[in-house]
Each structure stands twice: as structure tokens, then as C-alpha cells.
Write a structure and sequence with these properties.
422 residues; mainly alpha; 19 helices
Length: 422
Amino acid sequence: MTTSQPSRTDARSSVETVFRMESPRIIAGVTRVVRDVGIAEEIAQDALVAALEQWPRDGVPDNPGAWLMAIARRKAVDLVRRRENYARKLAEIGRDLSESAPPEEPADPEDIDDDLLRLVFTTCHPVLSAEARTALTLRLLGGLTTPEIARAFLVPEATVAQRIVRAKRTLATKNIAFEVPYGPDREARLGSVLDVIYLIFNEGYAATAGDDWLRPSLCEDALRLARLLSALMPKEPEVHGLAALLEFQASRTAARTGPHGEPVLLKDQNRSRWNRMLIARGIKALGRAEATTTGAPGPYALQATIAACHAHAYSYEETDWRSIATLYALLAARAPSPVVELNRAVAVSMAEGPAPALEIVDALTDEPALLDYHLLPSVRGDLLCRLGRTTEARAEFERAAALTRNERERELLLDRARECGG
């Protein structure tokens, strides 16, 4: 059953929107059939082409995501049927692909009963470098574009594109089996898996480009995967740390945009709109991280502790900024990063004033990774404005607005520039 026939433009827009949301699940589901993520991606693209051909003519299906998945799985089955000696294998393992059913696998309490999470683990294969496996997984299964991944890594888009191409080539030439890892193999991939989930959430929390400030579906996917992972690996403190961080961050979603979708900064958010149930879940997850930690807390647990400080504060001004600044210093020592240092500067500005914070920020202006990072001039503009250096502040906000690709964020930054006066 389909809806009434839309215009070709509306249908194409629907196809692109649905495919962007559903392609990770389609690729994950198809990979279980064809056992090759590269082929699965090609089949997903074939399903997209079929939708572009049929939806403008026949109308958009009532359940477009299920339609795309059905087409993709049917194409996957046809491909498997054409493979050499498929009939013999079918007889041997009793696999009935006529209904697109994956092979039965023995029950195992450590198995991953989620296609998307399974594929995150299998794509984060140790044969690839950490950067390559994370970029490939974000592209195929996180649904992020090359520019979005480039922003996450603070590297040029061409670098990310090369990493993805090389990763696909390596997996194909080495004939890597896409199997769920267990024991030490699973633990060896955990760091990359956590990074993927974290970066997917970040893109949903503050979109790199487009007309929307938030992409809630990405946040929901990341949060769901983090919760699944917590149940799967209950003795891993960083798993609970990541889950806690995402619960705390997700709790603010309703307050992060205004009535027309415009961004609302943390200091201006109505905290009564923060989701207390998610905050409670974050507190419990952070408690599990602390209970399972045997040494110093990891980066995700530290970030979750910072988020907890915000969650416990009744207002922006009542936030324990000194503790947050100290925690960022610990995070900078544990996982050095210019972005962490920039965040530390914000906390220092609230705890000690804008002048010492500006010294931290000015020391970052020559960091290659931050040359095109719009939040650097944005933070610097805020500090200059608080110091009364409004002309300089206006220039920084305008520079930040020129660097961002998100329309909502650009409007916010230009508003900040105008507030600085002529």
C-alpha cells in the first residue's frame, strides 16, 4: 500500500531522507546474508535506485524503510543464489533464503543480537588502522558523510576519503570474514567501537551541515547501541562511561532548540525541560563505571563526570565550574586533544574569568587541527566580548560563522556578532 502519488521532487526528497536514515540498517541486514560489507553497500545503493525509479511513479510506500530493506534483501538473496555451488551449500546447512532468513546460529549469551552493533564490531577489524576502521564504520553504518567524518577527526576530507577507500580494499583483498568476535578479539576492537558510537551521537547532537541543528535519529541510534553494549560487556568501565555520557547529553535535547528549531546555548536553556529519567539513567551508568574501574577513570568516564556536574546544577551560574575545569585537566592528561583544551578554556573562563581562559585559547590558534574549526573563533569571540573587546569579538564571531556549514549555527554566530555592536 502506498500514499497518494507525490510530485517527482517530493518523492525524490522522500527517498533521499529515508535512505539517509535507513541505509546503516540496510547495510547491516544485508551483510548478514552476503557476508561482505562492500557488496552490501552496493546492494543498498541498488535499492536506492529502485526507489528513485518507482516512488515518483507509484507513490511513497506507507513504510518506506521496510520497502527499501525488502528490496535490498531480495537482491542479496538473488546474488547468493547465483553464487557457485550455492545449491550444495543450501542443502548442507538447510538455509532457506527464499524468505530472506539468516542462518540459524547457536544460542550464546555473549552473542550480539543486533545487526547494527554486530556490524560495528566486525567492521572495526584489527587488520585496519584505528583511524581507517573508525572512518569506514562511521561511513557505512553510522550513515555519516565524508565531510561529517572529517570534522569529527579534524582532518581534511580528502584524507578521510582515502582512508575509507583503502579500508574497503584491504578488507576485500585479505578476504576478511565478517564474524562476531569473542573474548580478547572483541576487547581489542572495543576502543574503536566506543569511538564510533560516540561520534555518531556527536553528529546527531550538533549537525555538521544542513538546516537542522539536531539529528535526533543519530542520537537515538547511538544511545541504543551504548545501552546494548553495556548489557553485553558489563565489566568494562568505559562502556558504562560512554553510556552515562550519552544519557546525560541526551537529557538536554528538548531544551537545546527553540520553538523554530534555533539553537539554545547551555547558559540559556530551560533546565526544567531536561529529561530527569535520562539523568537518573546517566547517574546509574556512571556508578557502574566507577564500580568496575580498577585504576584511573578513562576518557569517557571523565566526560560523563563532567556532564554529571552540569546535570546536578540548578542553573548555569551554580555549576561547579572549578570541578569541571579540574576534570578537563585530567582528561587532557589522559587523552590529549586540542578540542579538550578548548573545552577546558571554557570551564576556566567560568571558574577564574575570561582573561586566563583567553591565554589558553590563544595558545591553540596555531594548532593545525583547529585552523578551520569554527568553535575556536566562537569561544575566542565570547571571551573577548566578556573582556569588553567588542570589535575583536565581532570579527571572531563572523569568522566562526563563515567556517560553519550548519545554517542554524551560522545564524546564531551572526547574531552574536551583531550583539557586539559596530
